[in-house]
Write a sequence for this structure.
């Protein structure tokens, strides 16, 4: 048994230990390097076994390499074998070792005692020679010797051979020695005439921190390239100098007096006669308006059907000034963001408002492989009168600082200074040491292409387009930066602004006159004989309502015009409004909504403060017999009919001519589901349901408002037509049915919307009573159907049951005298529901019921009325021209004029308010679905407020207990 356990241990545990140990790796630098004189063993790290292994020879001959992965010969020993790893053998060289380590050399006095190799020659004109060009030893042996270059030659950079002085393009007074004359200086191996330029500004400004870094690249190359460009007229040096001026963002502009002088100062000092030969044009000293607004400089007729692309070509330059050719402007050539090719190319489809943003890591921007420092100039090619022309596109750099220290490109156009060359990413310019990691990287944060239509023609021509670039800086601590590329279009807004102002001013004047007229009508109806605070308050609210309608017409009209004509144009003559004109449109839109909200508030307050009284025409019936005191008994009239009519009135207070749920659902369905929303993009493409791989330009708030308003109005009109001509005619009409209910209930409704104006619904039953049983009621309805009773109209032999009332003053005074004490008692009572108050309310109700009944029956001698028709002008202006005397006037109406005190009669105002609410929410959120949801919630809340306030007013004015209003 003990043997079995031992065997199991050997079979299982030992192999496991072996495998485990094989997976324990060591650090290559932990191997013995042979530098310890007490140890003769030298080790290297074997990458196959992942272990330290001994070299083929001891520490006298070999040592471990710096990375520890192989063996190498020690100084003074040459290789006789070197196959890597331990397959290395070394032999001693007494006089020194060649540079490649494979030969013994006789260095003589030039032996380096540390490296055991020959020192380079110390004389500037000498080269070190070991082998001749044919491979033979230079002296017939393995001696290393220093040889002086003959006249007219000089050592190359490696000091291994002599080259002709002319190979360095040197200009010197002593060509035999290749040395610069005393009046010259050596620049990049070239002798040039000394220039009096001191204290050069070789700094690159970092706006983020307000500091400046001395650029190692500018320090090493600026003066040299200036001298080579200016004196030797070398094109590449001039291009390099232009790049360095671009690199500092043209600081100081093209002036020779800027101090301290920088790259742009030196570029400006270059002989002006070279402009047409070797000096490139990278900056325009003219004002921005003189550069861009050149008559007929760009003779291209732009169309959207067929679609045209900008014929841009880009010239690319290396940092050293080498021209790398022209490329078509497509894809990511000038766009740092990464996206599908068709999306990036959409930027250059004429008429497309393009905007693409992304985030890029700072470490990627600092990678010269991904984002090399290149310089660009953009040209546009076009054909004019059969001749192909090329025009250089200007660039407005927002970071540019002129010689006065001003950022003029962020101000008015007349002060702009435009350039032509730019870069996208710079991780070299701000380096203080070129061989170290950059601290900051500069990049084009925002690039924007701006195109403006010509103001003097409508034939699709534009002024010279230009790029606007904003640079920013980032350090590694920033992680990521945001980058954008945009294309926008503009046109002269003077004509539009003038028409906009004329329309606004004209319609506002009419609105002011109409508001004054409505206030005058209200003051007559309210019995106001002078201008007081209520009159002024109502004038303000009427003005709000009138102005909101005018502003809505202007806002919708402008939006609809631009939306339709912009999408339907072939030759470009119209673009999306921008700047102050667009801000004015937004402001007027907001004002229309705010004013409409105030008008709606005024309407609700007026409706919820109207005086309503229910006249009960029912009379007590005699029951016959005597009571205990000998008097004949009479039945009391039931109040339930009054409660029933009050509840029906309460139900129709917030009824509308449209179904709000269907309205919102249908609008959102057409805009989002059907895809009409896709047509509101800021490009000429009016396609519905665009493909997913097609670039979707940004949405226009103006176009979204125009489309939403159009759909909202059309669906609202369709709904009203359906309800008015189909549903209410053939199914049910709640407003007219309410009048029928009043007639069957023997209840009339007396509505005083103002002190001396109101509406009357004549509900007196033609049967004389309605407080009857089911059989009697059925019989009464049957008799009326068979035309066996009189007509329901107030005037005999007529059917007119609804009237507009001009109320006599005495009636209002009588009503106030009876009603006010009850309201004052209720207001001062702590409980508000005491028995005394109820008795007074009941008494007041009975008094008013008898009073209004007598008034309608012409039974009051000094308070009476006449019935007549309004003339056409009175109907059109909704007013009354006749002055009231002692008699009131009942005007025949269209059967439902009383709905003016209900939502039903104010559908147009409510529809426009809902529309403006829907559009203003979408203006903020840019989401039709959210706008629909919030619009429905808010309109329902408004209905709830109107219903609650109306119920309380109904209970207070009709003296009906609110608890019976359901």
């Amino acid at each position: 048994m003990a043997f079995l356990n031992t065997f199991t241990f050997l079979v299982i545990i030992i192999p496991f230990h072996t495998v485990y140990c094989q997976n324990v790796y060591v650090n290559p630098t932990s191997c013995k390097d042979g530098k310890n004189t007490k140890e003769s063993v030298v080790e290297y790290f074997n990458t196959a076994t992942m272990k330290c292994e001994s070299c083929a020879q001891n520490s006298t001959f070999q040592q471990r390499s710096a990375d520890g992965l192989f063996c190498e010969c020690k100084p003074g020993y040459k290789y006789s074998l070197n196959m890597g790893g331990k397959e290395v053998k070394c032999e001693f060289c007494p006089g020194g070792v060649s540079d490649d380590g494979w030969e013994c050399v006789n260095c003589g006095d030039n032996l380096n005692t540390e490296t055991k190799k020959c020192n380079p020659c110390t004389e500037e004109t000498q080269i070190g020679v070991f082998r001749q060009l044919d491979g033979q030893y230079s002296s017939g042996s393995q001696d290393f010797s220093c040889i002086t270059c003959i006249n007219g030659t000089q050592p190359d950079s490696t000091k291994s051979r002599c080259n002709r002085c002319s190979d360095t393009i040197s200009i010197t007074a002593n060509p035999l020695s290749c040395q610069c004359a005393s009046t010259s200086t050596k620049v990049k191996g070239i002798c040039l005439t000394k220039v009096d330029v001191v204290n050069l500004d070789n700094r690159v400004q970092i706006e983020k921190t307000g500091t400046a870094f001395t650029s190692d690249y500018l320090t090493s190359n600026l003066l040299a390239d200036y001298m080579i460009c200016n004196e030797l007229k070398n094109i590449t040096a001039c291009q390099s100098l232009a790049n360095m001026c671009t690199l500092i963002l043209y600081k100081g502009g093209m002036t020779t007096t800027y101090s301290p002088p920088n790259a742009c100062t030196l570029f400006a000092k270059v002989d002006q006669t070279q402009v047409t030969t070797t000096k490139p044009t990278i900056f325009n000293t003219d004002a921005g308006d003189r550069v861009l607004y050149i008559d007929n400089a760009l003779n291209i007729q732009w169309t959207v059907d067929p679609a045209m692309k900008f014929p841009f070509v880009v010239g690319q330059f290396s940092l050293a000034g080498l021209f790398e050719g022209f490329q078509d402007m497509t894809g990511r050539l000038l766009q740092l963001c990464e996206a599908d090719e068709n999306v990036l190319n959409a930027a250059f489809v004429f008429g497309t408002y393009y905007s693409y943003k992304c985030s890029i890591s700072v470490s990627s921007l600092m990678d010269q492989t991904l984002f090399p420092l290149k310089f660009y100039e953009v040209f546009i090619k076009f054909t004019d009168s059969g001749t192909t022309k090329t025009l250089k596109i200007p660039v407005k750099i927002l970071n540019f600082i002129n010689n006065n220290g001003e950022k003029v490109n962020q101000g008015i156009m007349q002060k702009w200074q435009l350039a032509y060359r730019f870069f996208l990413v710079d991780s070299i310019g701000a380096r203080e040491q070129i061989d170290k990691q950059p601290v900051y990287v500069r990049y084009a944060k925002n690039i924007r292409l701006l195109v403006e239509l010509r103001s003097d023609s409508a034939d699709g021509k534009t002024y010279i387009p230009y790029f606007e670039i904003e640079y920013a800086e980032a350090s590694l601590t920033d992680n990521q930066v945001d980058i954008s590329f945009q294309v926008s279009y503009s046109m002269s807004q003077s004509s539009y602004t003038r028409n906009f102002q004329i329309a606004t001013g004209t319609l506002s004047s009419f609105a002011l006159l109409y508001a004054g007229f409505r206030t005058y009508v209200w003051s007559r109806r309210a019995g106001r004989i002078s201008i007081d605070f209520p009159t002024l308050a109502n004038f303000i609210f009427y003005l709000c309502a009138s102005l909101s309608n005018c502003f809505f017409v202007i806002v919708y009209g402008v939006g609809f015009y631009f939306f339709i004509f912009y999408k339907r144009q072939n030759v470009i003559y119209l673009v999306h409004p921008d700047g102050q004109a667009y801000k004015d449109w937004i402001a007027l839109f907001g004002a229309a909504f705010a004013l409409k909200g105030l008008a709606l508030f005024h309407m609700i307050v007026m409706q919820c403060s109207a005086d309503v009284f229910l006249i009960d025409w029912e009379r007590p019936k005699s029951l016959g017999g005597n009571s205990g005191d000998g008097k004949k008994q009479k039945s009391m009239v039931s109040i339930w009919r009054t409660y029933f009519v009050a509840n029906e009135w309460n139900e129709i207070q917030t009824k509308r001519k449209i179904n709000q749920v269907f309205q919102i659902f249908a609008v959102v369905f057409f805009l989002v589901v059907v895809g009409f929303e896709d047509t509101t993009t800021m490009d000429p493409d009016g396609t519905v349901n665009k493909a997913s791989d097609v670039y979707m330009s940004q949405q226009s708030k103006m176009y979204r408002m125009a489309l939403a308003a159009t759909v909202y109005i059309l669906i609202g009109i369709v709904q009203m037509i359906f309800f008015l001509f189909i549903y209410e005619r053939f199914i049910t009409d709640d407003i007219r049915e309410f009048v029928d209910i009043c007639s069957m209930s023997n209840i009339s409704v007396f509505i005083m919307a103002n002190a001396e104006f109101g509406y009357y619904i004549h509900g007196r039953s033609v049967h004389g009573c309605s407080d009857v049983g089911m059989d009697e009621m059925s019989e009464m309805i049957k008799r009326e159907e068979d035309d066996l009773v009189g007509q329901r109209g107030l005037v005999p032999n007529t059917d007119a049951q609804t009237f507009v009332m001009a109320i006599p003053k005495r009636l209002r005074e009588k009503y106030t005298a009876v009603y006010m004490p009850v309201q004052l008692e209720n207001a001062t009572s702590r409980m508000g529901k005491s028995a005394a108050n109820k008795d007074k309310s009941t008494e007041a109700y009975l008094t008013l019921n008898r009073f209004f009944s007598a008034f309608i029956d012409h039974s009051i001698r000094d308070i009476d009325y006449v019935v007549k028709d309004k003339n056409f002008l009175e109907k059109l202006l909704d007013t009354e021209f006749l002055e009231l005397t002692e008699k009131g006037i009942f005007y025949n109406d269209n059967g439902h004029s009383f709905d003016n005190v209900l939502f039903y009669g104010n559908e147009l105002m409510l529809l426009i308010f809902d529309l403006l609410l829907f559009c203003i929410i979408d203006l903020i959120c840019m989401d039709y679905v959210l706008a629909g949801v919030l619009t429905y919630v808010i309109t329902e809340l408004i209905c709830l407020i109107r219903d609650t306030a109306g119920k309380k007013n109904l209970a207070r004015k009709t003296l009906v207990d609110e608890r019976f209003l359901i």
Notes: The CA atoms of residues 899 and 905 lie 5 Å apart. The chain has a mean pLDDT of 86. The longest helix spans residues 533-568.
